[in-house]
Design a protein that fits this description.
The protein is of the alpha+beta class. The protein is built from eight helices and eleven strands. It has two domains: about 5-115, no CATH class; about 155-295, Roll (PH-domain like), CATH 2.30.29.
């Protein structure tokens, strides 16, 4: 896909704003002056807004998301062009905007006819979309597997703290799920709970680095995330990692980071930058040196 089409598709997301305004305009005179806009676990309204404030809120939250999504989409296509991960990301943004539009329409329908507001499609669709996008994102830069052979060193970089944190969030989600009486919401919350459990398992298992004469292989939960052939490695050095850059699997374009802590080994390759989190970066550097020395011995 060329850049112009990608930019056009990004701009088309903004149709959600006039469509939301149009939907309100179509039923404006039928709406109550005081609209139900928040509901408890049983689907009973427990929060209200004036119809004017409801319209402004619907447009405001939609515009807020559109600004963020547009900036991210622009950066993604500028860094590496409209490749498969960028298209998958754009598709995810469309889903999120669609979810907001769906919820706004559900609120209007409830205030017009009294029909129950259901958020099951949102609760179920979003975690599934996150998993699909993550698989596409991770597969985009895996490269070819390194040839089987001698393993010079193996390292694991994990975080029990993050594993416990996400397991706790999953437990809280599960507790709420059991207490919620509506089956549809339970299904959606169950999907979200499963997603947090996967993240917890990933943090507990950590990033596995296998260093061979052919290069470096990165994996987690038995899934190969990336292979870096020795011939593509230019330089590497220990660095500090700032918390503001985030943890887990990070990066867009030609940059990827696999980090659970505040220390990394920065590897510059012919295809971009790779950051490998590690509790003892100098040791990892020595093992990379061993890889290079082995190839020249």
């Amino acid at each position: 896909m060329n850049r112009k089409l990608f930019i056009a598709l990004t701009g088309a997301m903004w149709l959600a704003l006039p469509l939301t305004a149009l939907r309100y305009w179509q039923v404006w005179d039928q709406l109550p002056i005081r609209m139900a806009t928040h509901f408890d676990a049983y689907g009973r309204p427990n929060g209200w807004m004036s119809r004017d404030l409801s319209l402004y809120f619907a447009l405001g939250i939609t515009a807020f998301l559109l600004v963020i999504f547009t900036v991210i989409a622009y950066v993604a296509q500028r860094l590496k062009g409209p490749d498969v991960p960028a298209l998958a990301l754009l598709g995810f943004f469309y889903l999120m905007v669609g979810c907001i539009f769906y919820v706004n329409n559900s609120l209007l329908a409830h205030n017009l006819t009294g029909q129950p507001v259901t958020v099951t499609p949102v609760l179920l669709g979003v975690p599934i979309a996150i998993v699909v996008f993550t698989v596409i994102y991770l597969g985009s830069q895996r490269g070819q597997a390194l040839p089987e052979g001698q393993t010079l060193a193996e390292e694991v970089h994990r975080s029990n703290v993050f594993a416990a944190l996400f397991a706790f969030i999953a437990a809280v989600e599960l507790t709420v799920l059991v207490a919620v009486p509506r089956t549809g919401i339970r299904v959606g919350m169950g999907a979200i709970c499963a997603l947090f459990l996967i993240i917890a398992a990933h943090a507990w298992d950590g990033f596995h680095y296998r260093i061979t004469p052919a290069g470096v292989e990165i994996s987690t939960l038995g899934f190969r995330l990336r292979s870096i052939p020795r011939a593509q490695i230019r330089t590497y050095r220990p660095e500090k990692w700032m918390a503001l850059r985030g943890y887990g699997i990070r990066g867009v374009g030609n940059t990827r980071a696999y980090v659970w802590g505040n220390r990394v080994v920065h590897i510059s390759t012919q295809n971009g930058e790779v950051f490998l989190g590690h509790n003892d970066p100098p040791r990892l550097v020595r093992e990379l040196d061993q890889m290079r020395q082995f190839t020249h011995s």
